Structures are given as structure tokens and as C-alpha cells.
From TrEMBL:
Source organism: Caerostris extrusa
GO biological process: protein processing involved in protein targeting to mitochondrion
Lineage: Eukaryota, Metazoa, Ecdysozoa, Arthropoda, Chelicerata
Protein name: Mitochondrial-processing peptidase subunit alpha
Source domain of life: Eukaryota
Gene Ontology cellular-component terms listed: mitochondrion
Any one Gene Ontology molecular-function term assigned to this protein's record: metal ion binding
């Protein structure tokens, strides 16, 4: 895998969930990715400030806190069908875009949305979301 990042910000009336990963198609391994996610979760929770932030976010968002073991078990249950279903559902929703700098080449939100749901290899001539 070239890189992988994920973040989630949940609030009572809105939120954002982002996953970014890049890898050559021949190196996509779900079990390895799940193990890495479980490891990162546990390593992050070795820091007291991160634990306190985790507790605060969970309580604010859901009213309760779940132990790390719960998330470890939930990650273990994930299947490739789950990934495809979530990705399809998320790509059907409108994109959120934030940009800074010279924006004259930034496509319109309509173009971005169209390219996210397009299965064609040829996309807008002005930009490419995918290489």
C-alpha cells in the first residue's frame, strides 16, 4: 500500500467520514488491512489524551462508550461485500469539497459528483479524480 488514512468527525447534527488509500490493484488485501486498522486503534489508545478524546467523542455522539474490544471484533467481521456496499452508498451522496489557492482549474461540484458515480474510464477533460 502506498498510503492509507482515515478520519471521522461526528456531531449531533452532521459529520464527515473520510477514507483515503492508494495501492496497486494486485496488492489489495482485506485481512491485512483489517489487522492494520486493529493495530492502529490499539496503538493510538496507548496515549491517555487519545483515550480521553475517544471517550468524549463516543459519549457526545452516542451517549455511551464502547470498549476497544468491541471495535476489534467489529473490524474482524468486515467482508469485501461490506466494503463494496458502503463505497457504493457513499459515492451516491453529494461530494463535499474544500479548496484553497488558485481555483481556476477546479471543476464544478456538478462535474465532481458526475465523475464520482461514473464507471467510465474517460472523465472530465479538466481534471481526474482517479489516476
Amino acid at each position: 500500500m502506498y498510503s492509507a488514512t482515515a478520519f471521522n468527525h461526528s456531531y449531533s447534527d452532521s459529520g464527515i467520514f473520510c477514507i483515503h488509500a492508494s495501492s496497486h490493484p494486485s496488492h489489495l488485501e482485506l485481512e491485512r488491512a483489517k489487522m492494520q486498522l486493529q493495530s492502529v486503534l490499539l496503538m493510538n489508545l496507548e496515549s491517555r489524551p487519545v483515550v480521553f478524546e475517544d471517550i468524549g467523542r463516543q459519549v457526545l455522539a452516542t451517549g455511551t462508550r464502547k470498549e476497544p474490544e468491541y471495535f476489534i471484533q467489529e473490524i474482524a467481521k468486515i467482508t469485501s461485500d461490506d466494503i463494496h456496499n458502503i463505497a457504493s452508498r457513499m459515492l451516491k451522496s453529494k461530494a463535499s469539497v474544500a479548496a484553497l489557492g488558485d481555483l481556476k482549474h477546479l471543476p464544478s461540484l456538478k462535474e465532481i459528483d458526475a465523475d464520482l458515480v461514473s464507471k467510465e474510464k474517460l472523465r472530465s477533460k479538466r481534471f481526474s479524480l482517479f489516476s
